[in-house]
Structures are given as C-alpha cells and as structure tokens.
C-alpha cells in the first residue's frame, strides 16, 4: 500500500471514535469570539466543551466569525511529512463556501517544486460539516482496504457529489452575516415559525430549498428526504446526524432516522464544530448521507 497520509480540516465533523480507529491528520482552523482568536482541532478531547461554549456565546449575542487557512499553515504542517517520505491526500472544505481550497492548492504547488518526488493531492470535497466527515471517513476506509493514493483520489472525485447535506437552521441571520447566503434568501429566516431547510448543492454552495413551519415538520422533511434518496451500494452504509449542542433533542432525531432506514445502515451523532457553527447558529440539525441527488428528490 502507498505510504500516504490523509488530511482534512476543522470544517469536518466526525464521531470521536474515527480519530482513534484511523490515522487522520487535521489542519486546524481559527474562529473568533468577541475579538478572541481560538484554534479548533476536531480531534481535541475538549471537542464538545468548545462547541458548547460557542453556542452559548451565540445565544448571548456574541460577535463570532471564522478565518481561512493560509498557504503558510499548509506548508508548515506538510513540509516535515514530505521530508519523511510521505505523500499527502488532503480533503478540503468546499470551495463553494470558502477560499481555503485555493490556499491549499497554492501551498501544494509551492511544495511540489521542493519535493518533486512526492505526491500532494488536494480534493475539493464540495462538502462541509458531517458531509465532509462522511466523505473523509470513506477515504480512510478506502486506504485501510489497500487503495492507493491515486485510486482513492479518483474515487473521491467521482463520488463527491453523492454526499448529501440536508439541514435545518433556526434563523438565516448567521449565514447572511457570514456572507454564505444573500440578504434576499435570509429574509425568510425572520418569518414566524419558519424553519429554513438548506442543502449544499453540486457546486458546493449553500442553497435554501424548503421553508416548513415548525421544527417538528422540518425534521420530518429531512428524514423523509434522506430515506427516499439514500444510497448504500458502492459506498459506506452510514449516516451522520449533526446538532449544535442539542444533546437530548438529537437523540430523538437519530431515532427517527434509524427507524426510517435499514438496520444495517450505521447512524451516528456528531456535535457541530465552531467553524461551521459560527455560521449557522445554535438551533441546528443536519442529516448527512450518501445519496443520488443533492437536492431534495421529488
């Protein structure tokens, strides 16, 4: 098997056991709370504690934002591994939401000149949060099964648009503030009882696709769409359910998902990282899975 490392960044959300089951490397990302810069590692033992603190700060109207990973950070992290003779497969936060992908390519191009015998492959996941987590988990499983770096990269590129993100936010204000959606799209977020549903589309961008009234109906729409469009052949049989420190409520959401799909499909729960949480706010649920349509199937 090729001697290569798999990297992702703090925009990926995965169950805690993935970090102990597999060798996965994380490029950390920064977020800012009331002017204080904090660095987030998704594999940190304090993961949930940091998430809880952010969402509580948002409820108290804290000023929260995020930053991009600079080319220098990639060069700093990757140079020692390349010197040690390792190739690198980096699975990056969606280019449709962040310029992080361009910065990673910049760094990879610079490093390729210094290490012409090493491979540095940067994959634009077109995904985020638990969707990116599912995508990275598949890459880890591919490598564990003996897949080469080139074959793994080709598989990921071929299958990336089959990672489906369906999520509910309580208010689109946070996404508007971060420039992730337009002001026109955000106006529905202030409507009484509306729980906007969003996807990440084929271009890796956020898109509002439904506006049900009430959280109960919103969650039902998420579960129904996931069940209708779920893909299990040729991909890992898994679904990641995400939340913003809503531990009690998310258990019920996960239960609904488990009741809706075949019992051999693994359904796991992940708290949302501050990197994505900063932009969606504290009232959030997501269901990320392999499917056939990134938009809700008709």
Structure overview:
Helix content is 40%, strand content 23%. With 298 residues, it is an alpha/beta fold. It has a six-stranded mixed beta sheet, with helices on both faces. Strands 2-1-6-7 form a four-stranded parallel beta sheet, sandwiched between helices. Strands 4-3-5 form a three-stranded antiparallel beta sheet, with helices on one face. The chain is globular, with a radius of gyration of 18 Å. The model has no long low-confidence stretch (mean pLDDT 90).
Task: Give a brief rundown of this model.
The chain has 298 residues and is α/β, with parallel strands linked by helices. Helix content is 40%, strand content 23%. Helix 3 runs parallel beside helix 4 (100-114), helix 5 (129-144) runs antiparallel to helix 6 (149-159) and helix 9 runs parallel beside helix 10.
């Amino acid at each position: 098997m090729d001697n290569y490392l798999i990297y992702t960044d703090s925009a990926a959300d995965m169950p805690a056991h993935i970090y102990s089951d597999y060798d996965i490397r994380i490029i950390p990302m920064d977020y800012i709370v009331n002017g204080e810069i904090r660095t987030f590692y998704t594999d940190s033992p304090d993961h949930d504690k940091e998430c809880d603190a952010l969402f509580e700060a948002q409820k108290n109207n804290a000023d929260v934002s995020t930053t991009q990973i600079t080319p220098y950070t990639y060069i700093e992290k990757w140079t020692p591994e390349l010197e040690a003779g390792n190739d690198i497969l980096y699975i990056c936060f969606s280019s449709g939401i962040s310029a992080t992908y361009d910065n990673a390519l910049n760094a990879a191009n610079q490093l390729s000149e210094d290490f012409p015998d090493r491979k540095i492959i940067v994959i634009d996941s077109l995904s985020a949060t638990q969707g990116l987590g599912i995508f990275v988990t598949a890459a880890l499983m591919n490598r564990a099964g003996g897949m080469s770096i080139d074959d793994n990269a080709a598989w990921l590129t071929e299958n990336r648009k089959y990672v489906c993100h369906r999520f509910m936010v309580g208010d689109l204000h946070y996404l508007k503030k971060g420039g992730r959606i337009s002001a026109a799209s955000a106006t529905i977020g202030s409507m009484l009882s509306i729980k906007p549903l969003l996807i990440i589309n084929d271009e890796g961008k956020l898109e509002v696709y439904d506006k049900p009234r009430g959280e109960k109906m919103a969650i039902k729409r998420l579960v129904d769409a996931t069940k209708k469009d779920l893909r299990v052949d040729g991909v890992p049989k898994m679904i990641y359910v995400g939340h913003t420190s809503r531990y009690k409520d998310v258990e019920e959401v996960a239960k609904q998902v488990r009741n809706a799909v075949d019992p051999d499909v693994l359904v796991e729960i992940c708290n949302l990282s501050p990197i994505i949480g900063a932009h969606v706010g504290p009232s959030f649920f997501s269901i990320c899975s392999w499917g056939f349509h990134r938009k809700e199937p008709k």
